Amino acid sequence: MRPLLVLSVLLLCTSGLQGDLMAQEDDPETVVITVDSTNLRFSPSSVSITEGDTVRFFWSGQALPHNAVENNGVFDSGEPARAVDYSFTFERGMNGTYDFVCEPHASAGMVGQIVVEPAPPLNETNATEEAPPMSEDTPAVTALATASMLSLAWVAVQRRQGNG
Fold first, then answer.
1. Residues 69, 111 share a domain
2. Is residue 66 flagged as an active site residue?
3. Could you tell me if 106 and 142 lie in one domain?
4. Annotated catalytic residue: which of 22, 102, 134, 149?
5. 102 labelled catalytic
6. Is the separation of the CB atoms in 98 and 116 below 8 Å?
7. Which tens digit of pLDDT belongs to each residue from 81-108?
8. Residues 48, 107, 94: CA angle, nearest 5 degrees
């Protein structure tokens, strides 16, 4: 009976993991920009993302205060500080190039750039093309596979014990 239990747990864990991996493929990305205080630079100083993605400006314990301000006011992390945790999400329609600066250190060249690529268009044709094959049938296939494996394991246990 123990092999049957072990097999059941493994199958359930595997089917749950498969669903989690598929769900994460469409998640927006978060890119983190920190500070290289030795050289007074953003790190990385240039990033490319897609509409829907988030840029997170994050640093702490800096000797000097910093901020991140987009040149046209699209985003602003606030007053310069030694610890910053500020995020900005570039929504659909915000594709383009965004230059930003650390206000206290702009003259030292502490600048950066975010290139936002357009997200794929949302329409019925693309939605069906991008969907993983059998996405709606996956739970049924997983349940069928689990039931089949449990049946085979039960038969194997019964034969091993001499009952079959």
1. yes
2. yes
3. no
4. 102
5. yes
6. yes
7. 999 999 999 999 999 999 999 999 999 9
8. 30
| Total number of domains in the chain | 2
Residue 48, in any domain of the structure: yes
The catalytic position among 66, 94, 134, 149 is 66
76 and 140 share one domain: no
Q: Which of 13, 94, 110, 149 is catalytic?
A: 110
Q: Which token pair is 108?
A: 């030292």
111 located within any domain: yes
The three-point CA angle 105-111-116 to 5° equals 150
Please indicate, yes or no, if residue 21 is contained in any of the structural domains.
no
pLDDT of residue 163: 64
Look up 13 and say whether it is catalytic: no
How confident is the model at residue 21, as a pLDDT? 43
Catalytic residue among 13, 22, 94, 105: 105
On whether residue 93 sits in a domain, the answer given is: yes
- Provide the domain limits for residue 79: 30-117
Residue 19, CA distances (Å) to 10, 16, 23, 127, 133 in order: 15, 5, 6, 18, 13
Query: Which CATH number goes with the domain that contains 38?
Result: 2.60.40.420
Tokens 């498969």 appear where? Answer: 18
Residues 112 and 141 in one domain: no
18-77 pLDDT tens trace: 444 444 445 789 999 999 988 999 999 999 999 999 999 999 999 999 999 999 999 999
